Amino acid sequence: MSYGDKKIELLNELSGRNASDVAYEFLNSEIRNPNNSTNLSEKLFQDASGIYLNPTEELVMKDVVKKDSVCATVLSSGDFALDSIFNGAREVITFDINENQLYSASLKLAAIQNVGYEDYYNFLANSCCDSFLSNDIYSFIKEKSNDESFVFEFFDIIINQRKKECDYFKSYLKNKPEIELLWKIKIMQESDNVKLRMLAKKVIKRLNINFPEMVGQFEFDLLVSLLDHNYKASNVFKCIYGLMGIKTPGSYIENERSYRKTCDSIQESNIKFIKSDLSKLLNNLKDSGYLDNNFGGFQSLYLSNIPEYLSGSIFARIVDSQLMPLLKDDGVIVYCCQGVDKDRLNVSPQEFNFMRMRARIINDNPWMNPYTYVKEINDIQGYSYLKGKYKVSIVERDSLSPSNGNDNKDSFVYVKKR
């Protein structure tokens, strides 16, 4: 299978850093400390030492993108752009404060043009599968893409490290029969063989252990590191987020049919990238010259959960000054509040004041993670500002990342220009 060699077009200059150096930095990096900031976006994501491989919220482009439209979306792992193309966009402008996201997004674009559906999903999204980030599929993509760009300079390092980690894990299991048993249960749970899956359930019940279904390599790596402090946990998993992808109904990755339709559509569409944070998107697009080329406005602008990392007042000003001017008259801005349901977004002023006080207390406690509560405050404040000025609606979806909030729902906020 080979559909072509479409690439992401760059609208502005990047840092020019050597891709292999970036990969080595990733593998040796530590998690950034936000230093109790209420504006987490720049501190956490400006050229962050890590990348998203898959979205951590449901793909909703089928409800956002119109056929033959020009739209904009945060780049992230590239899935939002691919899903926009599947749903009819003819041009997608992507942006990101972290230019390193080009590595994962470009790898996905190369993969979708050169491998079949099952290999694509298992290699990039199925962390429960042995083919996940495997050297065999990666080498095939690299060979077929006929491209020795920075993308492969980066992933040569990452995939080689993952291969070493897999070899180490196999040798580790030989000396740890009790952990090897857990690994075998995991393999049986995910087998296509019904008898093996039933056997796994019986073993779990007999041993009286709490072992959830669909435990990916990342979760198992973390489990083993907790059971044995001498175990060398994966450096690859430490620097890659969104390790598990979901076959969202109505999305480009749902099934073979949707995947092939996307492969075909890519050849008739364009994906462009500009390095920019949200607060400078309009200005940077002007500087790049993109807005001079008969630009008629974006039909939609998808922000993922970026607004959660900005104070509500700052986000509202960005919407007014940087985003609304980029939209067509009937355009829409969509963003995701992760782990925050409708009721929480509409709390009373008294409850909101209590939540702010709680967030400040937790922020001062070195043993607690303030992200959830700071993001929650930002979500509520931003939504409150916007609904007072624009036509705003909310659609709830089941949360794909329960640890990213206090509720089991994600709220997608739609802000219409008119």
Structure write-up:
This protein is of the alpha/beta class. It contains 17 helices and ten strands. Helix 4 (101-112) crosses helix 7 (150-174). It is globular and about 65 Å long. Mean pLDDT is 88; it is low at 32-39.
**C-alpha end-to-end distance:** 44 Å
The major beta sheet can be summarized as:
8 strands, mixed
Helix content: 40-55%
Alpha-beta content class: alpha/beta
Number of DSSP strand runs: 10
Radius of gyration: 22 Å
Gross geometry? globular
Low-confidence stretches: 32-39
Order of helices and strands: EHHEEHEHHHHHHHHEHEHEHEHHHEE
Mean pLDDT: 88
Strand order of the largest sheet: 1-6-4-3-7-8-10-9
- Beta-strand percent range: 5-15%
Number of helices: 17
Question: Which key phrases capture this entry?
Answer:
single chain; 418 residues; alpha/beta; eight-stranded mixed sheet; two-stranded parallel ribbon; 17 helices; 10 strands; globular
Secondary-structure map:
Elements lengths: L8 E2 L8 H9 L13 H5 L5 E2 L17 E5 L4 H8 L4 E6 L4 H12 L4 H8 L10 H11 L4 H25 L2 H13 L4 H14 L9 H11 L7 H5 E2 L14 H11 L3 E6 L5 H8 L9 E5 L9 H12 L3 E11 L4 H4 L3 H15 L7 H17 L3 E8 L10 E8 L2
Helix pairs in contact: 1-7, 3-12, 4-7, 8-9, 14-17, 16-17
Brief account:
The chain has helices at 19-27, 41-45, 79-86, 101-112, 117-124, 135-145, 150-174, 177-189, 194-207, 217-227, 235-239, 256-266, 281-288, 312-323, 342-345, 349-363, 371-387; strands at 9-10, 51-52, 70-74, 91-96, 240-241, 270-275, 298-302, 327-337, 391-398, 409-416. The protein is α/β, with parallel strands linked by helices and 418 residues long. The protein is globular.
